[in-house]
Amino acid sequence: MTLLSSRSSDIKGIKIFNKLHAMRYRFMAQFGAESAKPFDELRAQVDSILSAAHMLSKMWTRNLGRRAGAEGTEQFHMQVEKFENVYWEGFDDDPIKPEIDRIIREIEAKCRAIITSNRTLFSLLNAKFTGDDPRG
Prior knowledge:
The protein is built from five helices and no strands. The protein is mainly alpha-helical.
């Protein structure tokens, strides 16, 4: 996405997150119930983006800060900035990206043992792409 692109502007993107959330059950079956935690955390991040979008739509259309005087205007703009940092990608104080990166690392670490293990269906399928001999 570009600097000024919205994280939730694409309905296909939401469908992808819904599919990821549904995969958590397969992940739980493979790795145990505790392994669903990263998927739950990912869903919470998506929910915070959607919530920020909802709040911004209300705030932008009502422009509540105009009616509250100088102090209220400053507080209004601080709230708008807080929600914009969640909704828009790429700012220095982006609260979402570090969390998403951490969640991805956690899921990859959990999967790495299976993907790279020898004598499994996964290793046979991956051998073609990695050039490794799946027989060890």
